[in-house]
Amino acid sequence: LSFQVDIERESLIIKINDLSKDSIISIIIYYSISNTKCTALQWLTKEQTADRKYPYMFSQCQDTPGVKSTFTAKITCPKLLTVLMSGLQTKYDENTTTFYFEQKQAIPSYLIAIAVGQLVSYDLSPRIRV
């Protein structure tokens, strides 16, 4: 598909022709980010974390609530780190430390969240974990 990046509006524009109003499509976008150029992702060095052993990354996005989508995600991280997202974790591959997520309910883009770090959790009940 042809596309362009609108630097002024910080948006990706993908041109799709001949779609009806009720069409459903899937678009896969492969990308990588830089900890010096990405403003939606915040990075803490290992020295800024409680145990000072591993860095921590989290998203803090702002966008229009009028743009909603579902998503799937496949995220690989270093061993000993955990990935959390604003979708359901559907799979985890121990050999590659790859986490798989799916969000079937269309949500605004600013609610798509991710966090990666040496995270711990505690179960308060069978349905509640902090």
UniProtKB/TrEMBL annotation:
Cellular component (GO) terms are: cytosol
Q: Which InterPro entries does the entry mention?
A: Aminopeptidase_N-like_N, Aminopeptidase_N-like_N_sf, M1_LTA4H
What is any Pfam family matched here?
Peptidase_M1_N
Tell me the superkingdom of the source. Eukaryota
Could you list the residue ranges forming a coiled coil in this record? none
Aminopeptidase N-like N-terminal domain location: 60-111
The record, for PANTHER family, names: LEUKOTRIENE A-4 HYDROLASE
Protein name as catalogued: Aminopeptidase N-like N-terminal domain-containing protein
